[in-house]
Amino acid sequence: MNTVEVLIEKLQHARDLQKKSNFQLALQNFLEVMEAFETEGKHEGYVMDCLSGICQSLANLGRVNEIPDYIEQYKAYC
Question: Which of 25, 40, 42, 44 has the fewest C-beta atoms lying within 10 Å of its C-beta?
Answer without folding.
Answer: 42
